[in-house]
TrEMBL record:
The keyword Repeat does not apply. One of its GO terms (biological process) is mitochondrial RNA 3'-end processing. This is ATP-dependent RNA helicase SUPV3L1, mitochondrial. One of its GO terms (cellular component) is mitochondrial degradosome. Belongs to the helicase family. Residues 264-429 form the Helicase C-terminal domain. SUPFAM superfamilies: P-loop containing nucleoside triphosphate hydrolases (SSF52540). Its main location: mitochondrion. Pfam families: DEXQc_Suv3 (PF22527), Helicase_C (PF00271), SUV3_C (PF12513), Suv3_C_1 (PF18147), Suv3_N (PF18114). Keywords: ATP-binding, Helicase, Hydrolase, Mitochondrion, Nucleotide-binding, Transit peptide. It is an enzyme of class 3 (hydrolase).
Length: 717
């Protein structure tokens, strides 16, 4: 056979529309068809010999009968894609077109759906909670532990016994641990089997969230309650109405208006010298949080600090400090974490920036202007009803951002178009039955690629799940346990937390309980107060590790037996972190002194941390699933070996640092960090111009003239 002729005919076979149609009928979509053909072509062209029947067909197709090759192509495709043999079964399992049918208990009753629609600070949730408190039994489902804890306290203060259920903790209202008729929980923890009189689903617009939207869909379709009170933005009304139409349930809409006026100011703050009591500066990165808080305290003002990775207890203490009229702290610096979950007495919201990094539905990181929904959620925190400020104000730090903020706030909120879905462990187990040799990561990939959803739904982002699945793939676990470990709520950008999960999984696989002593050795507990930002960030990571232990302890009680002891030391750690946050400007100064001495380089997501941690994070951010393998190896390699392994990543990490530090002019960065004032800048500019005129920058030097002309020549080229 002529290799050239065979290759030409194989390519002709690939391009035939009839062959592509036959492939589709046998489960090969365009992507799988292409991959199967590449593999098939490689097999034929690189084999020293092929079977006799295939040799005969290859000889025949040289005479023009290329379609006769299809049975051999399909046989090869089934070898590399085993699911082709059971494609019909897999398609049925991954058919997500009728989610209401997954909840027969909810479909067996006629539910009344009441949508409380309105902006932040309109009283919509208050009215829903009043109905919750007056019911014989009820469940509150919120997006945050802080919100669930607030309703838990309010209920018990109103003499309505209520339990608290979150991923990490169970608190019973009754001393004998009997379940109370009312429950306040995080939305992922709500039961779809327990009957209630009233259910409250808070922040319903999060049903569109690319990562967590599935939990709101599950609660809305699956809760067994006579009345479902849904609270959130009016932008979700149409979607909720359509979803309820598919279940045969009507939606009653109650609209609310903001209880206090909110004014967008005509001027920007421009300078931190213009701050007033009750001001809150909203930043979208820890870097800005640290920078702004230091500049504020340099002016002799105290400020409270709140950001997402702080423990709930620390956030509450900082909020309490800011709200206390007798406390000298009158300024708050926060991320958009204040958008929900905290009651704050804010007079004026000041956006330090209106650009925010986000993760899109494909799991890709994007940097874009904040949405109208986000802007309204944050701005609405100003002038809270019942606080000392009867109206709210909103503006920006920089004048250039003010017009854009006004445009964003004036635009209508985009309607919520679709509700999130996520494969259940039962569905993945059925997939595994048909594909016993596939990894969990591959099973999820195949499930998503075969899944069918109608226009009202989308499949949530599974990148975090796949990252953890790849990281623990080499550890022998049964499928259900592996699935649970992969759904653990952790930030994959935290190397210490990821490696701890890896160690948990390994110990679990050996059937060795994770004891309190083991955890203390691993985290080096007890820990002291942080001396710099790097140590504060590490304490936050240790707090996340304790959260992870508690989360796993409710799923594998016998293997994580010391939840009570861990909760005790977590409270102590919360107190230590509170001390660190109260002294945050001292920690920043210590970090910057260390950086100047060359002992540290980057902090948190975009601020100086130790080099090893920065390098590990660089691996995590840039290499996706590969970083899971890097972490799993790093957890087993001794420190000296790990340093050697990381050496290859360091040059890339340094390049990344140089790029990030190069954004914006040096003058702007120094101004932002408070190291340079406008007056100093003008003086420097004047001095530079004088020196330039006097020839002190090389204009009088022949050598410098020559180098300047060379530079001009380069620019012309």
């Amino acid at each position: 056979l002529s290799a050239g002729e065979v290759l030409k005919n194989l390519n002709k076979f690939y391009k035939r529309k009839e062959i592509q149609r036959l492939g589709a009928e046998n489960g090969l979509d365009a992507r799988l068809f292409h991959q199967a053909f590449i593999s098939f072509r490689k097999y034929i062209m690189e084999s020293s010999s092929v079977s006799a029947d295939l040799h005969i067909i290859l000889n025949d197709i040289c005479c023009g009968h290329v379609d006769d090759l299809f049975p051999f192509f399909l046989r090869h495709a089934k070898q590399i894609f085993p699911m082709l043999d059971c494609m019909d079964d897999l398609r049925k399992i991954s058919d997500l077109r009728l989610p209401p049918n997954w909840y027969p208990d909810a479909r067996a009753i006629q539910r009344k759906i009441i949508f409380h629609a309105g902006p932040t600070n309109s009283g919509k949730t208050y009215h829903a909670i009043q109905r919750f408190l007056s019911a014989k039994s009820g469940v509150y489902c919120g997006p945050l532990k802080l919100l669930a804890h607030e309703i838990f306290q309010k209920s018990n203060d109103a003499n309505v016994p209520c339990d608290l259920v979150t991923g990490e903790e169970r608190v019973y209202a009754n001393e004998d641990a009997r379940q109370a008729p009312h429950i306040a929980c995080t939305i992922e923890m709500c039961s779809t089997n327990t009957p209630y009189e009233v259910a409250v689903i808070d922040e319903i617009q999060m049903i569109r969230d690319p990562a967590r939207g599935w939990a709101w869909t599950r609660a809305l379709l699956g809760l067994c309650a006579e009345e479902i009170h849904v609270c959130g933005e009016a932008a979700a009304i149409d979607l909720v109405t359509e979803l309820m139409y598919t279940t045969g349930e009507e939606v009653e809409v109650r609209n609310y208006k903001r209880l206090t006026p909110l004014t967008v100011l005509d001027y920007a703050l421009e300078s931190l010298d213009n701050l007033q009591p009750g001001d809150c500066i909203v930043c979208f990165s820890k870097n800005d949080i640290y920078s702004v808080s230091r500049q504020i305290e340099a002016r002799g003002l105290e400020c409270a600090v709140i950001y997402g990775s702080l423990p709930p207890g620390t956030k509450l203490e900082q909020a309490k400090k800011f709200n206390d009229p007798n406390d000298p702290c009158k300024i708050l610096v926060a991320t958009d974490a204040i958008g929900m979950g905290l009651n704050l007495c804010i007079k004026r919201i000041i956006f330090n920036s209106i650009v925010k990094p986000t993760i899109n539905e494909k799991g890709e990181k994007e940097i874009d202007s904040i949405t109208t929904s986000q802007a309204l959620q944050i701005a609405g925190r100003a002038g809270r009803y019942g606080s000392s400020f009867k109206q709210g104000e909103v503006t920006t730090m920089h004048h250039d951002d003010l017009m854009q903020l006004k445009e964003i706030l004036s635009e209508p909120v985009r309607p919520v178009k679709a509700a999130g879905l996520h494969p259940t462990p039962e569905q993945i187990e059925m997939f595994a039955y048909h594909l016993p040799d596939a990894t969990l990561s591959n099973l999820i990939d195949i499930f998503v690629s075969l899944s069918q959803v109608d226009g009202l739904y989308f499949v949530c982002n599974i990148d975090d799940f796949k990252f953890l699945a790849d990281m623990i793939q080499h550890i022998p676990l049964n499928l259900r346990s592996r699935y649970v470990f992969c759904t653990a709520p952790l930030n994959r950008k935290e190397p210490f937390v990821c490696t701890t999960l890896l160690k948990f999984a390994r110990q679990f696989s050996r059937n060795e309980p994770l004891t309190f002593d083991w955890l203390c050795r691993h985290t080096k507990w007890p820990l002291g107060a942080p001396k710099n930002i790097k140590e504060l960030v590490h304490l936050e990571a240790v707090h996340d590790v304790f959260d992870l232990y508690l989360w796993l302890s409710y799923r594998f009680m016998d293997m994580f037996p010391d939840a009570v002891l861990v909760r005790d030391i977590q409270k102590k750690l919360d107190d230590i972190i509170q001390v660190g946050v109260c002294n945050i400007t001292k920690l920043i100064r210590a970090s910057q002194s260390a950086a100047a001495a060359g002992t540290a380089t980057v902090v948190s997501e975009d601020f100086p941390l130790s080099r090893t941690k920065r390098d590990t994070r660089a691996v995590s951010d840039r290499h996706g699933a590969k970083s899971a393998e890097a972490l799993s190896i790093a957890a087993e390699v001794p420190r000296e070996g790990r340093a050697k392994n990381l050496k290859g990543y360091r040059s890339a990490a340094r390049q990344e640092d140089l790029k990030s530090h190069g954004r914006g002019s040096l003058a702007n960065r120094l101004l932002r960090e408070g190291l340079l004032t406008q007056e100093m800048l003008r003086q420097l500019e004047s001095e530079w111009q004088d020196q330039h005129r006097n020839g002190r920058y090389g204009l009088g030097s022949k050598r410098d003239d020559h180098s300047s002309s060379k530079e001009i020549g380069k620019k012309k080229k």
